[in-house]
Amino acid sequence: MAKLNTIVAILIFAFSLGAYSQTTTWEVSADQAAKKNPLEILPKNLALGRNIFKRTCVACHGEKADGKGLIQSTSLIDEKFQKQTDGVVFYKISTGRDKMPPFGAMLKEDEIWSVINYLRVLADPSAIPPPKNVKLELTTGEEIKSITATVLSADSAKLPLSEVDVHFYVKREFGLMRIGEMSNYTGADGKVKVFFPEKIVGDSEGNVTLVVKIENNFLYNDNETTNVKKWGMPLLSHEGEFSRRALWGARDKSPVWLLLLANGIIAIVWAVIVYVIYNLFRIKKAGRIFFK
Ligand code: HEC
Predict the structure, then answer these.
(1) Can you give the pLDDT of all 292 residues of the chain as single tens digits?
(2) 92 CB within 6 A, ligand 1
(3) Rounded to an integer, what is the distance from CA 49 to the centroid of its chain?
(4) Closest residue (by CA) to atom 16 of ligand 1?
(5) If you measure from the C-alpha of residue 216 to the centroid of ligand 1, how many angstroms do you get, rounded to a whole number?
(6) Beta-sheet pairing, 146-153 with 191-195
(7) How far is the CA of 15 from the centre of ligand 1 (A)?
(8) What is the dihedral of CA 61, 62, 66, 67, to 10 degrees?
(9) Is the Cβ–Cβ distance between 41 and 122 less than 8 Å?
């Protein structure tokens, strides 16, 4: 009987633990709740919010913010959550509770506001217009090596589009190397320019592939244009160095002294083993005299 009581007590305790965070209300004072979000729901702010969310929140709240991360937490997209004002959400993110860390010390206020905007859009994508196609052009300046991206509307009017974040890359053997800033926004003429860094190694002739991209943008669909330029330093061939016997060579190009040393050690070890076995037989033979 005592045993059953203990089991019941443990079960009740376990259930109350599990239910705790769902049932206790999270009190937020009226003036905290009334705090206004100073950031508009704009692509610029959303990109920042998404970066922070992916970096800091996904582990617990999940990619879709449905609470199904590696560590179980709560949904940030369901109706119950979304009914709360920005001020309430701001307070909860800043102060945290239980397993929810207090982010007030880690993130700037604007960063928290931008995450809130991102959560609003995640829950209701219609809060922003669907992404549009654009025309993306790449031109190069020759005297001082520079790359200009021009972003125009995809329709026949070809209007220049400003405030579009363009990413610049140089293609490397494994993937792309970013050049310019993390964000490069087009001006009123739809153009943005970055300079080509010095001392970039190209292929054997010095050719490099320049890549401009619009990616992960909330207003425009992904787009990419490339151009090949002879702007890099020619890749020097190391043929000669690798074809002679040296430590960095392949197996069949190993130095002679290393071959002798390694095989010598193996030969000595085998010699010892053979010698031991030979002596074992001699001992056995010698013993026969006594046991005849
Ligand atoms: C270590 C895991 C963890 C991380 C990281 C985390 N959260 Fe949480 N979060 C939780 C848990 C667990 C709760 C539920 C806490 C409670 O109700 O006591 C929660 C609750 C919340 C709430 C309140 C939910 C509600 O129902 O009102 C918000 C808002 C929130 N998190 C936002 C964020 C944001 C934004 C980030 C990233 C900057 C983040 N969280 C990072 C675990 C985490």
Answers:
(1) 456 666 555 544 454 544 444 557 899 999 999 999 999 888 778 988 999 999 999 999 999 999 999 998 999 999 999 999 999 999 999 999 999 999 999 999 999 999 999 999 999 988 888 889 999 999 999 889 999 999 999 999 999 999 899 999 999 988 999 999 988 999 999 999 999 998 899 998 999 999 999 998 888 999 999 999 999 999 887 777 777 888 888 888 889 999 999 999 999 999 999 999 999 999 998 888 776 6
(2) yes
(3) 15
(4) 21
(5) 25
(6) antiparallel
(7) 21
(8) -40
(9) no
Task: Name the closest-CA residue to atom 42, ligand 1.
Answer: 100
Q: Is 81 in the pocket of ligand 1 (CB under 6 A)?
A: yes
* Ligand 1 contacts CB of residue 61 (under 6 A): yes
pLDDT tens figures, 93-108: 999 999 999 999 999 9
Which of helix, strand or coil describes residue 237? coil
Q: Two tokens at 289?
A: 């005299």
Phi/psi for 60 (5° steps) reads -105, -40
Q: Reduced to 3 DSSP states, what percent helix, strand and coil does the chain have, rounded to the nearest 5? A: 40, 20, 40
Q: In the structure encoding, which two tokens stand for residue 15, read together? A: 């259930």
Could you give the CA distance from residue 156 to residue 272 in angstroms, rounded to a whole number?
86
Length of the chain: 292
Cα dihedral: 268, 270, 275, 277 (round 10): 160
How many angstroms separate the CA atoms of 14 and 35, rounded?
Answer: 37
* 91 Cα to the center of ligand 1, angstroms: 11
Q: Is 193 in the pocket of ligand 1 (CB under 6 A)?
A: no
213 neighbors 224 (Cβ within 8 angstroms): yes
Torsions phi, psi for 132 (to 5 deg): -105, 160
Cα 24 to averaged position of ligand 1 atoms, centre (Å): 15
Dihedral sign of CA atoms 247, 250, 251, 253 in order: negative
